[in-house]
Specification:
single chain, mainly beta, 7-stranded mixed β-sheet, 4-stranded antiparallel β-sheet, 11 strands, globular
Length: 118
């Protein structure tokens, strides 16, 4: 059974930092692509950052230079370091596990709330 458990969300002032974690179980983590997505109220879920099993990263333009995605295969965990946070970063952040070329292989965590006050 696949489980993705996010943690690290909270309330922070603009300009502050947070680090999100997503602990995975039930998957072969080292060969699984991992990603962070977010959904603000009334908005569609959007990609924030992804990292392949090989460590290749990709970021949304809105977070480039501020957010860093990383993974620690020994702990089956993916991280999202968020710096210079802005009020528009406020959203529920979700972790996703997927496999390139296998569309049906997609698992989501329950989400963690990030609120940035101005």
């Amino acid at each position: 059974q696949v489980q993705l458990v996010e943690s690290g969300g909270g309330l922070v002032q603009a300009g502050g930092s947070l680090r999100l974690s997503c602990a995975a179980s039930g998957i072969i983590f080292s060969i699984t692509d991992m990603g962070w997505y977010r959904q603000a109220p009334g908005q569609q879920r959007e990609l924030v950052a992804t990292i392949t099993g090989g460590g290749t990263t990709n970021y949304a333009d809105s977070v480039k230079g501020r957010f860093t995605i990383s993974r620690e295969n020994a702990k089956n965990t993916v991280y999202l370091q968020m710096n210079s946070l802005k009020p528009e970063d406020t959203a529920v952040y979700y972790c996703k596990a997927s496999r390139n070329g296998i569309p049906r292989y997609a698992y989501w965590g329950q989400g963690t709330q990030v609120t940035v006050s101005s």
